[in-house]
Structure formats: structure tokens, C-alpha cells
Specification:
The protein is α/β, with parallel strands linked by helices and about 475 residues long. About 45% of the residues are buried.
Length: about 475
Amino acid sequence: MNSPLTSQGPVRIDSGLIKGAATGTDKSISVYKGIPYSAPPIGEMRWRPPESVTPWKGVRSATEYGPSAPQAISSFGGITERTWQSEDCLYLNIWTPAAEPDEKLPVMVWLHGGAFSIGSGSNPQYAGMNLARKGVVLVTINYRLNYFGPFAHPLLTGESEHHASGNYGLMDQVAALRWVQRNICRFGGDPDCVTIFGESAGSRSVTLLMVSPLAEGLFHRGICQSGATRDVSQSREEREEACRKLAEKVGAETLQDLRAKTWDEFASAGPFNTNPLVDGWVIPGDPRDLYAQGKQHDVPLIIGSNLDEATLFILESPIKTVEDYKRFINRRYKENADRVLGLYPVKNDGDVHEALNRHATDAMFTLHARKQARWMEKAAAKTYLYHFTRIPPTSGGEHLRAHHGAEIAYAFGNMGPGWGDAAEVDRALSDAMMTYWTQFAATGDPNADGLPDWPAYETETDQYLELGEEIKAGSNLRKKELDVLDK
């Protein structure tokens, strides 16, 4: 077996020398953690585009994760600590199987989820050893979140040379991809073969970077797990007004005031819309219109959703009775309510939870994945649609079935604490998904020897791949329901 890259000593990146460590039972994977890809966005740099890292002297240790972005809750392997969090959060982590820096392996960059409010690239479920063993260089990143990420304000817009504010987290993601272009060759990666992939907010980030002029040419494939162009069309002016009111609540009248306030002071003022927005620069127009006009970057795409996405979101739903449910559907769909009630019927109060799950899963996830796949037909590159249906043998699976985020452990092969003895079918599904994902990263086509064929998506055939107890191709995924909702 070849020696890992770390055996050769420190790696020189554009800001200095770093030293990582070998990992895995066979010590075949080199890991570099806590690498700064941009200058700390603190003080006067809060709510500004990311800038270059100040070079350091000597060898910097890269064996510990950097802090995550400030957030309400951050879980690291079951440990919740605010001390892991800092505005100085722009760090990335690398797992590479390379023995030499010139191997030109495919690169996969993971964008974590968390509603643009929570999360971190150092979450244990994103550890990249298993994907790296499949022959890719795996990168995870942090980016700015919540009050310090998608925060727009007239004063910030006024000081910007681009007359834009908000979307700082997306700017960070672009900065990380630029870092990859400059440096990943030192870790055995190919900067001309970069796949961005993510789940939930990370998946929506992928769809947005595909229409951002700033990201053009920085990646060559995309994988979207449970997220598309949903809730990303608010105008900068609307966001500015909401954040102006938030600034008033914390007693900030100037930019100096705003930049002096702590995360806790903002949190005490209440929540705001943390989704990305149409700022006119990072996102130049409504993403739905840009896709409909065929203005997305022409790169291959995998996109899909899970069978029970909504179980996580309706846990505390106040809709409990048939009357509650019908009132909700009538309010949302008005003259079309009867058609929707016919698709998601309820006979008694015991039916309400499952009807809510089916409706919300379709309306929030399955429909948007199909719509995104159909928009991609305007590009030359192929798109592949999937539907994940396996219920994991975890407490989450027991209570929430094939829930939002259930596929992550399979895509990374990290079936750790809480899994017990995963069934052979789970191990096989995970291995297949990792093969599909890494084959796609290498070639732009997920199909590989020994795996069921995954047909490219076309509206006419409406084909997809089911990733479940059995892996098989199908067609017309929930077509009756999605066709009605699409109208």
C-alpha cells in the first residue's frame, strides 16, 4: 500500500506550510483540518466579502477542526458547546487518499445543511474517510450563518462597491471554491474536476451557485440532496427592511454599532429569514427565472429527495384534527383545495399526520427536485434524479422513517453511534451510493460496473433511481400528485 501524503511532511499552500495526520485503521488517508481559506470575518470585516488569509511563518498544525460559525445549537458528536463557535469560522478540512501531490484525483466539496442557521463542516457525520477510500479528495467547509450570513441592510448595501448586501455565506462558499482551485493540487486533487454537493441548505446552495456568476468555472458537477430552488427568491429590498427593523431592536443606528453587537444581542431580538436572497450580485435575479431561461451553468447534476422528508418538520405541527387539516389546505390552495384534498385525503384524526407528511414532502421537496431536473434539460449536461426510501435502523428511522437527512450517513458511509449493527442491506446501499457519487464526481455519469443502471432524467420518460432496500430504476415518481401541485 502506498504511503499517505502526510508521510512526506508539511504541505505548502498559498498561505504557508501545514502539517496534517494519517487516519483510518490502515492509516492510508491523510487528513488536514482547520485550514483557513479566508481571513477572519470579524470586526470591520463582519458583513464584508471574504478576503485573503494573512500568510504565516513556520508550520501550522492542521490536526484539529476550526471553530464553527456562531449559532443557537451546534452538535459535535453529541457534544454541544458554545466554545466551539466563533465569528472566526472560515475553515475547511481535507481527506485525501493521495500518496503524491500530482495524482489529479476528483475533488468533492461538501456544503453542510442547517437552514443557513446552524451546522458545520466538522460534524462527525461528514468525516470523509470512506469517500476518500473510493478515490476522491473530500473537502468540507464552514461558512457564515444566521445573523452574520444572510443579513442585508441599507447601510451595508451603501458601502458595497457592488451595491449589494446579504449572501455572505454564499460568498464564503465561492471563496472556498477559489481556494480549492489554487491549492487542491497540493493534496492530489484535480482543480479541473470539482464536484460540489450538499444536503438541505447545502443542496440549495449548490443550486444557487449554479446560477451565480461568481461561481462560474469553479466547479464541474453538482449533487443536490433534499434541496432545490425553494425559498431563495426574496428581494434585497425586502430583506433590508426586515434587517433594518432587527437593527433597531438591538439599538444599532450605524455600521459601527451593528459591528459591535454580539451574536447573543441579535439572538435576543428574535429570528429573521436566513435564506439566501436576490442581491443583484451574487444572485443576479430570481433563481427560478434564471433556470427557466436556461442561464444556469452547464454542468451535470444529481438531485433527489427522501420518502419522508417532512416527518422532521411536522413534529410540533398544531394541525391535529380533520378540521384543522381541511382548514389548512383550504387556506393554502383556495379554489384548488378540493383537488389537493383528493390527493391527500383524511377520514379521521388519525390520518392527519400521514397526510401532512405526504403533502409537505411533495410540496417542499419531491416537486422541487423534479422541477429542477426539468429546468436542467435546457443545459447540454445530463441530470440524474433519485428517490431515497430506506428507513435507517436508528432512533430517527424508528420515529421519522426515511426522514430529512437520513441519506447522509449512507452517502458518507458513516454509520457510527446509534446505528448498532447496521443490516447488510444498509451497508450495501451505502457502498452503492458512495460508488454512484464518486463515479459521478470522476466522470459526470454515476453509472458504474456492478450497479443497477441509473437513467438520465428526461421529462418525457420521467425516470429516476430508487435508493432503498432495493436499488432500481422507476418512472413517474408521484406524478399524479406532483402534476397537480405544479399547477
